[in-house]
Amino acid sequence: MPLAACDFLAQTTPTQPDATTDMFVVFGVVGLALVLFLTERLPIDVTAILLIVVLVVLEPWTGVDPETGISGFANEATITVLAMLILSGGISRTGLVQVLGRRMAGFAGESLRKQLFATVGVTSPVSGFLNNTPVVALLVPVVIDVANRGNTSPSKLLIPLSYASQLGGMLTLIGTSTNILASDVSGRLGSTYPELHRFSMFEFTKLGALVVVVGSLYLIFVGHYLLPERVPPRADYLEAYAVGEYIADVAVVPGSPLAGGTVRDASAALGPDIDVVQVVHDGERSVAPRQETGLSEGDVLVVRTDRDAITALEDADGVEPVGRPSGEATLSTSGESMLTELVVSLDSRLVGERLDPAGFREEFDAAVLGLRSRGEIVGERIVGRRLGVGDTLLVQAPPATLDRLARGDDVIVAREPPRPDYRTDKAPVAVAIMIGVVAVAALEIYPILISALAGVVAMIVTGVLEPNELYDAVEWDIIFLLAGVIPLGIALEQSGAAAYLAFLVVETAGFLPTLVVLWLFYILTGLLTEVISNNASVVLLIPVAAAAAAGIGANPFAFVLAVTFAASTAFLGPIGYQTNLFVYGPGGYRFSDYFRIGAPLQLLLSVVTVVGIALIWGV
């Protein structure tokens, strides 16, 4: 429909669908999903499995039989996302993104505007072809290094890094899992709405480029004025986490029952709230000592605990306080150990686990000194705190440990590894494989599913990835989420619930110009994405948007694109998009910081996107 359709509509009013029990049952399941996503009472992948179970158990009303219930696991979108995550992992192993980041650091210097230009200029294009989640994970330490070198607060750069990755994800079909899922839903609805089809590789690149340019200009020239310096340049971690208030030195006195024992014995004797982070023996300092490390008379234990437990140490049997350290002197950061932050990643085994500093030290060879959760420093009791995605641990560890952690998937090391171990010689091969995957799909020689799977095989055959690294590269909670919400979307369509919601939209907003209704769907999707996942948003709203568009005589494809773009640009808070969580702790942000910089950007892009859709595809 031409742009003139923005005038008040005079289309025939659609017939009201009959409200049925099936609809209300499906609405109940959707409500359950929204509550679980919002409250995070269950991990996201467990919630997805629960949805499958509920939909199948309620088959008489949802129409989802066991085969349909598990169809999400075999869905083209799910398998394509899985393959693209592996391909992104292959690129990551070559260190190519980090090389680009270091060149970015060399260009940026001490100019904040140059630093922002470099951050956005590297992140957005790369995120168009690699999944933006690992891109941000790789660039967090690089951007922090850029900020420290340029005497800039990392808070000025980290939210722009996350937002730029989301903007870049809209350049191509494979930029984000949301695009791939939206393409699948659009293709499935094509039998009902002839205007709908699966997206081609560069279907919306023209609009994506417009969004990237406008969003980047905002981040470079406006956004940084709205971001406070939560973390000072070259921040002193010990001071930022107030570590000195919770650290004490205690000596093993002559005749102590701890002499001749181990760190495990000392931890048991001193209590569960006290964690031994260092042992000083004959002037030699053992950082993050193992449980079996032996103790002798005269050894000094550096312990991390809360204020009450520090006071109680004065009466502890076998040890004697020898002063509370000022921090830096006692927690030595020589070449043998380094202080840094670890961000709990999306696929981490730590998500949902209670923090056990002794167990963490044993498994990861790093001593936990502080914790930042949901942007707030946890000063007192950190033992037993349940960890979530984006929580940030201040640790002290040897450089070799940080190298190993940086190569793993449990945490993001918020500084570049001292001795990175990348397969740099494989970078040209990895790039060639990605170009081949994109070219085959863009030329429609084979679907993106087949070209992506072929790319996975090529990366294994050429040695870019080792076979055992395939599974580590996959963000399994995303895969399970897709598998869970796809049958929910099918139930929403088959039960008539989507058509019923669309009728309500038409009834309440049908008197508005089509362009305004399109804008309202963009805003609704953006708000919904802030409380549930972006993938769930497109599954729930694309069928409603398409039906509403048909109801007012508009172009369903335009409405599908508005929902897709809005779901992939979540700027109002840290929980709407996983990349926002990754920068939450290292940036020292508060929840309001995202809204302060994100609300104007969301409003600006809502207008740019909707007008762009109208001009390019018509409404």
TrEMBL record:
Top-level lineage group: Archaea
Q: Name one GO cellular component term.
A: plasma membrane
Q: What membrane topology does the annotation report for this chain?
A: Multi-pass membrane protein
The processes (GO biological process) annotated in the record are: potassium ion transport
Named from the GO MF annotations, one term is:
monoatomic cation transmembrane transporter activity
Keyword annotations from UniProtKB, A to Z: Membrane, Repeat, Transmembrane, Transmembrane helix, Transport
Pfam families, alphabetized: CitMHS, TrkA_C
Q: Does the keyword Transport apply?
A: yes
Any keyword Nucleus? no
Q: Where in the cell is it found?
A: Membrane
Spans traversing the lipid bilayer:
23-39, 46-64, 76-96, 116-144, 207-227, 429-461, 473-492, 499-525, 531-550, 557-577, 597-617
**Which segments constitute the RCK C-terminal domain?**
235-319, 326-411
What is the name attached to this protein's record? Answer: Di-and tricarboxylate transporter
What lineage, starting at the top, does this entry show?
Answer: Archaea, Methanobacteriati, Methanobacteriota, Stenosarchaea group, Halobacteria
